[in-house]
Amino acid sequence: MYGAGLRIKEAVRLRVKDVDFGRKEITVRHGKSGKDRMTLLPNVAVAGLKQHIEQSRLLHEKALSEGVTFVHLPNALARKCPNAGRELAWQYVFSSSQLTTDPRTGKTGRHHLNERNIQIYVKIAVKKAGVNKHASCHTFRHSFATHLLESGYDIRTIQELLEHANVNTTMIDTHALNRGGRAVLSPADR
User: Are 163 and 36 contacting, i.e. CB atoms less than 8 angstroms apart?
Assistant: First the structure.
C-alpha cells in the first residue's frame, strides 16, 4: 500500500494479471472513481510479490484439482469467458486461504483477503513497532504522497498516481510537509 500508494480495497482486489514485473507497474482496476489507473511497483516488493504469487498459484492448482474453478469476475466476463476462472491471471494476488460460497451465484471459490483483517494486522504491527501516533492502512497512502513530494516529484504526477480528480485532495495528503517552525531549520541543527 505504501510503495504504490494503494487504497486497502485496491490492494486486496489486485489480480495476478494486474502486476507487471517487466514494466514495474501495477494496474488498479475500477478504482474509487470507477476508472483504471497505473501506479508503480516498487523494486523492494518484487521478490516478495513473486514468491507470494507462486504460493497463490499452488493454492489455485490445488483448488482446480478439487474441481473449484470459481472466482468473482468483473462485469459480464464470466458469461463471455466461462473458463477465465481457471486461469491464474484472474486470481486475486491476496486471495483468502479458505473457500467460500458466493451468495449471489451459489458457486464455491476463492475470494480476496478481508480488508478488516488487514486493518487489524496493521494496527498490531504499529503497536509492536512502538509507533505512538495514529497509523492505519490509509496512513501508508498519505506517506507515499508526502515522500514523493519530498523527493522532488511534481504534484500533478502524484495526483495521477493517487487517482485524485482534484489537486487539492493531493495537497491534503501531503499535509505532513508542513513541518513545525514553518520548515525552518534551527541553527542548532546545522
Answer: no
Are 73 and 90 in contact, with CB atoms under 8 Å apart?
yes
State which amino acid sits at residue 122. V
Please state the φ and ψ torsions of residue 133, each to the nearest 5 degrees.
Answer: -130, 160
Q: Nine-digit cell at 76?
A: 459480464
Closest Cα partner for 149 from 179, 177, 168, 169? Answer: 177
Domains plus CATH for the chain? 8-178 (1.10.443)
DSSP 162: H
Sheet of strand 25-28, all strands in order from the earlier edge strand to the far edge: 19-20, 25-28, 37-40
How many other CB atoms are found less than 10 A from the CB of residue 4?
22
Q: How far apart are CA 20 and CA 22, in angstroms?
A: 6
Residue 42 has pLDDT above 50, yes or no: yes
Instruction: Show Cβ contacts of residue 127 under 8 Å, excluding neighbours closer than 6 positions.
Output: none
What is the distance between the alpha carbons of residues 28 and 42, in angstroms, rounded to a whole number?
Answer: 15
pTM (predicted TM-score): 0.82
pLDDT digits (tens, 9 = 90+) for 91-148: 999 998 888 888 888 888 888 999 999 999 999 999 999 999 899 998 888 888 888 8
Q: How far apart are CA 154 and CA 150, in angstroms?
A: 10
Query: 3-state class of 15 per DSSP?
Result: strand
